Amino acid sequence: MRKNEGVTLIELLVVLVVLAILIRLAAPDLRSLLVRWAADTAAASLADDFRYARSEAIKRNDFVTICRSADGKSCAGQAGSWHTGWLVFVDHDSDGAVDTTASSSAPPDEILRVQQSLSWIDAMLPLTGNPEKQFKFRPNGLAPGYLGNLVVTASASVPGGTVLLCVSATGRIQPRPGQVACAS
Fold first, then answer.
1. Would the pTM of this model clear 0.90, i.e. be above it?
2. Of 65, 95, 100, 123, which is the most exposed, with the fewest CB atoms less than 10 Å away?
3. Which strands sit side by side in the sheet containing 134-137, from one edge to the other?
């Protein structure tokens, strides 16, 4: 007598039905996890570039600016969502604009980092206060006058799909997942 090797059609169908049920149960949790991960990643990326800009200002003993940028070559002219991208550059004349040519008083500005658009993020906007289009770090590493927040929203329809970034008066930035307000 021959032994049958393999699985029957009924066994295969039972396994597929059980697998489909498990996927159906896990899908909402998986979506929430992916949305939270996207918001955390975008918030961490912006926070890292703030820290980098601050450290470069100190290291170079020069002004360093981080600004919203859609093209990666120049700063956006008006306030808006930071999810379109940003850049970090040495701002020799502290005018908040990327100068590609030297002037009589300063050499051309140097772009240090470019963050392209974060297409998986819905918005990166201030929760309250005036929306900042750029942050300038002085040679001593301080960015006085910038006190506010940014809310990174990966998906407004998914609970936990936002991260609050608190910007201190000294220009330091801190992610605060799950919080609704920055400490004063």
1. no
2. 100
3. 110-115, 86-90, 64-68, 134-137
